[in-house]
Write a structure and sequence with these properties.
The protein is of the alpha/beta class. It has a single domain (4-216), classed as Vaccinia Virus protein VP39 (Rossmann fold). 27% of the residues lie in helices and 27% in strands. The strands form two sheets. It has a seven-stranded mixed beta sheet. It has a two-stranded antiparallel ribbon with strand order 1-2. Helix 4 (91-97) links the parallel strand 3 and strand 4. The termini are far apart. The structure holds S-adenosylmethionine (SAM). S-adenosylmethionine (SAM) binds next to strand 2, helix 4 and strand 4.
Length: 217
């Protein structure tokens, strides 16, 4: 089936709304971003399948439901400034950019970052800035952020990320001492030195590799 608009509508109904995604801004953003433009040509036909897909360099574009769930969990407002760690294809950054004022996204693999930049420029996204570097250390230049989302699994919550949250800010991150299986955690900065932590669900992500993540092998 080549009608991507129809497939996107079905994805929203069957994968998102049916499983409880209800924030109208998240649904609208998932409807606005053409996922088929963010996957390699050889898997384009599967762009709206209910799972992750390979994007090269051993990395993946996350399952649509996971992108929507994490975006909803960030509790975003229009004026927010958001930091994403793990640009990958640029898809999640594009979704975030439809909801908030400004998105900064960090990718450690330069080739993926360049491809994402070219793609987002071509598609006309103007409020996303892509940075190449070790996102386990955040992106201090532009801190603080109202929300930070990490799309790779960390052994523990990287302290630089919690430090770069604004008061009231939310961090959503997969955490666990296993390279494949993690728990999705939401950290809320409630005061200068105060944080609360909630466990949201069991997830599977590629590892966050960096100084405050897993060691590169
Ligand atoms: N958000 C992406 C998308 O929409 O396509 C999916 C990201 S993929 C599941 C995880 C990404 O995190 C990979 O591209 C990987 O290279 C990147 N990554 C892993 N460790 C990183 C780090 N320390 N800093 C920045 N990016 C990192």
């Amino acid at each position: 089936m080549r009608d991507f608009t129809l497939q996107r509508d079905m994805m929203i109904r069957e994968q998102l709304e049916y499983r409880g995604i209800s924030d109208p801004a998240v649904i609208a953003a998932m409807r606005a971003v053409p996922r088929e433009e963010f996957v390699p040509a050889d898997v384009r036909a599967y762009a709206y399948e209910d799972g992750p897909l390979p994007i090269g360099e051993g990395q993946t574009i996350s399952q649509p439901y996971m992108v929507a769930y994490m975006t909803e969990a960030l509790e975003l407002s229009r004026g927010d400034r958001v930091l994403e760690i793990g640009t990958g294809s640029g898809y999640a950054a594009a979704v975030l950019s439809r909801i908030v004022a400004e998105v900064h996204t960090v990718e450690r693999i330069a080739g993926l970052a360049m491809a994402a930049r070219e793609r987002l420029d071509r598609l006309g996204y103007t409020n996303i800035r892509i940075h190449v570097g070790d996102g386990s250390l955040g992106w201090p230049d532009q801190a603080p952020y109202d929300a930070i989302v990490v799309t790779a699994g960390a052994p523990e919550i990287p302290q630089p990320l919690t430090e770069q949250l604004a008061t009231g800010g939310r961090l959503v991150i997969p955490v666990g001492l296993n390279l494949t299986f993690q728990t999705l955690v939401r950290v809320r900065r409630t005061g200068k030195d105060d944080y609360s932590r909630e466990e949201l669900m069991a997830v599977m992500f590629v590892p966050l590799i960096g100084a405050a993540g897993w060691e590169s092998r």
